[in-house]
Amino acid sequence: MKTQVDFKYAFAEPHRLCICLPDASRKCLLDASKTGLTVAWTDADLTGNPLGALAPLMACWWLDLSADADGSALPGKAWKRVENRIPALEYTWENESAFVGIKAVAVKDADVFSISAKNKTSSSSRIRVLGIMRNHVSNQIWIDPGSNINALLPTIGDTSDRMLFLVAGAPKPSKLPKRESIVIEWDIRPGGKRKAYLVRPHFAILDDAKKWLSRNWENEIEKGLDAWKDLLKKAPEFSLPDPVVADAYYAGLSDVFVMREEQSNGRIAHSPGTECYRSLGSGEGSLAAVVLDQAGYAKESEEGMRTSLGFQEKNGRWDDLRRWGHDMWGLVGFKCLAVYQHYLFTRDRKYLARCFRRMLAHARWSHKERQKTKIPYKGEKPLTWGLMPRGMGDCGLMDGNDLYGIFLPHNIWHCYVLKIALWSAKELGLKKEAAEAEKYCSDALQCILDSLERGSIKEANGTRWIPGVPGKTCGSRWGAANAIYPCGILEPHHPLADGTLKYLEKDLSRGGLPINLGWMPGGLWVSIATDNLSYAHLAREEEDKAEQYLYPTLNHGTPLFSWCEERMPEPGASQVSGDRQHAWTPLTVSRFIRDALIMEDKDILHICRATPRWWLEPGQEIRVNNAPTHFGRISFSIQRSAQDELSAKIQLKGKRKPGQMILHCRIPETGKTFVIMESKGAEACTAGDKITLTPHSNSISVSVKLSDN
């Protein structure tokens, strides 16, 4: 297997994976390191939280697992997801004398740790897995040495008959080192193997121990894994020259369902993280909805957005007032992005009409709000003329030392709201409402463009860039590139777009990512490189620059395909912030991998627009099967069968065909001429390494000869 994913720039251990069933409220945090595995959880869930409040559900129970052989500690060797994509953990301890492996899987009423051990020596060996809880607990065998129930019970924190952990399928341990410990140990002959189960019931009492011990835990594990496998069967199939990139896509898609759960209103919604950000968030929730629509989960996408879309005041205000995202004007833009994409995938006009009423109500309210900033200062227009009034920044945006201010990125996204409102009115054939939306949109665009021009920061070399606050250099640069894409406030090659990208990318880390995009001075907000910058480059038709952030983004993650929110740039960075398993990066990874393979631009469908060039070396093939698009489903393969031959087969399924398809033949060599040898089902022409196809059939094939100029 050839891959360029090596996780070389992963931040410091522990590396986190949350395991659960899809959309489940019961979640378990697993923190892996070279010393062992920590199991952590809280019994609370979001059904008991104030709806939309940032009221984190922090872990309050902890078990630390280690392993040893004949009294010598075994080092943690490796950790990965099951099948390298499912939210279930495989962890191993190993040295020259012994192997101990854990497979941790969530099932309907428990988290199950299948533990396997092997003696690699030529003599008998005692191999032990030791768990010690940090809480005030006692092992039933410690309490009653005559008991055969190897279970941990609370002394403080819950009723004393609750089984927090239970061992099944292992002999009674010879000794417990302390009352808070749980032990699995075997005396294993040379080359011998053993297996047992450590079970964390979501709720069980000691009286039911016999019933729990009698269950077939291997079958339960298979059922837990099947729940994820069955869910992922609905997704498109990506077969790529680098299979680890495909794994990253499916891991990110899976994590959408890890970070969704029932809220206090009885509905499912998405959280931005697994612990300190485990609260409904409309920003990441909107991005999750886009990922779901792109993968064919339209019902789940719509379901997950219902609560966020419902956060609207009677006066039309739609920014999650009374919730976590209050006063963040750009948040409404994220909602509109999700609505826009959902409609393009489903063509559900009733859905668009419902959402448009919300957009228009917000546009009316915000138009009145913007009049508050149209106040001359000393007879002149201030830089903030006509912008939304003072709001919350977040994302590292600060006005000096103030979290609140008038921020350009939020106003850029606010204009996107008005643009989508106008587009929706036209799409729905609502002429009167379209004229009203046009009035709001044109005024807001005029104001933001004026503020961008006059409030930009001019460098000594004459280039200008978009700051967070007009005329100031304080705070982060998050959202500046969104003026290019998706908001389309600036033309892709506008001088301000040129200067902004140049400024944002002027300082790259050793691992190839831009520094200072978020909260941490000198740090990395890994997701924003791909989320903000790669898409801006795609809008500018700079595909190589867009693709350059894919592998660095993956390699700054952990082997579990998990990313903290922000961190310092060096490999093994110990200074991190936010959740250790944050949502934004895996969402961006899944979205970008999909868009690198298939991306819509109005009536054009791009194929392989930003794939790494080595993926079309001689002998390589890229295959996509049953992928949703705005035009229906698509399956295709692109094969480089020989040094001078390339062929593609495309199958469309849907009522609508794209006006054009652009097949990007991103080969690693330069200076090649592409000559079309045969084309079926479409008119074909070449320009550089792009083949433009005008389809007249659902089945299309094209073969190309590569020659030197």
TrEMBL record:
SUPFAM superfamilies xrefs: Six-hairpin glycosidases
GO biological process: carbohydrate metabolic process
Chain segments annotated as transmembrane: none
InterPro entries (UniProt xref): 6-hairpin_glycosidase_sf, 6hp_glycosidase-like_sf
Gene3D superfamilies noted in UniProt: 1.50.10.10
Designated name of the protein: Glycosyl-hydrolase family 116 catalytic region domain-containing protein
